Amino acid sequence: QEEPQGPTIIDVQNLDYPLKVISYKEPIYPESARAREVEGVVKLKLLINPKGMVDRAELIEENPKGFGFGRASLEVVKTFKFTPPRAKGKEVSVWYLLPIRFSLED
Asked: What is the pTM assigned to this prediction?
């Protein structure tokens, strides 16, 4: 596993307090999915830096595939801001799994 220079990457379970999203934009609903009335779920693995910003985002799961839910999620998640992660009072980076649901009722 690659370790970026700087703060240690720790497990989200070891944080001083739970990670929370404090600022985000809704992903753009893919037009092909909307036209076919398809809903979906995406799971992303995010590397959150000590400032609460997303340093890296990886698509872990996309269901159903082929409608652009993953791409839409990866584009928008870089704008998300989280509470700065801390462990034992120190600044850390943390991997975080984030599910994003695409629902036509929203």
From this structure: 0.86
**How does pLDDT run across 96-106, given as a tens digit for each residue?**
999 999 999 85
Q: Which residues of 66-96 are buried (b: 16+ CB within 10 A; e: fewer)?
A: ebbbbebbbebbeebebeebbbeeeebbbeb
Q: How many CA atoms lie within 13 A of 27 on its CB side?
A: 25
- Residues 101 and 26: their CA atoms lie apart, in Å, by 10
Is 1 a residue whose pLDDT tops 60? Answer: no
Residue 85 C-alpha from the chain's centroid: 14
62 DSSP 8-state letter: E
Residue 37 burial class via C-beta count within 10 angstroms: exposed 0-12, middle 13-18, buried 19 and up? exposed
Helix (H, G, I), strand (E, B) or coil at 72: helix
Q: Which helix (H) or strand (E) holds 75?
A: helix 69-77
Q: Nearest-CA neighbor of 62 among 41, 78, 45, 77?
A: 41
HSE toward the beta carbon, residue 96, CA cutoff 13 A: 29
